[in-house]
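Repro:
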Amino acid sequence: MRAGAPIRVGTENRAKLGAVRDAFAGFVDPGVTLELVPVGVASDVPEQPIGWTQIVSGARNRARAAFASGSCGLAVGIEDGLARLADGPVDAADPTEGFFNVGCAWITDGTREGHGFSSGFAYPGGALLPAVRDQAPIGDLFDDHWSRARPPEADAHGTAPGAPSGRSGGNIGRLTGGRLDRSAYGAQAVVCALIRFLHTDLYD
């Protein structure tokens, strides 16, 4: 990777590809051009992952499928989902209590594997409840919730006016006023997954 070996990425989503590019850019040797190969692969988890198992499985499945698709040095999979961080039983009065959006990145070289996570953020309950209850895609739910609660000019930060948030700055871009966009958010998880490869003497 440092010398320019291709990196296969288990998605064609521009924001996720941007996350991988941002994360790897600081680790390549001077003068080396980063070569990303987008690969449309299945995550084999629901469109809206719920819980750590589905989130991690989706990222791992994407990475391994991307690696198997052709020659590369490393392959990366990224999956976002909703995970409960609260202790104790689910509150029947508020089943969304303690749920945060978390991204997972999985990296493999065919033998060694590593994974890491992005920071977590909470969605407003009006969008979160049907996502948790019915595993409905949070992106569509949040777009609808945002458009009903905010004027069009509020889209000026984090996403293009009228565009679905998942296709530009992302939901996190909207919620942070553009201070943290979807690519930067995903890059957090990729950098954390890379630790396993940066310090093989400590982890092998």
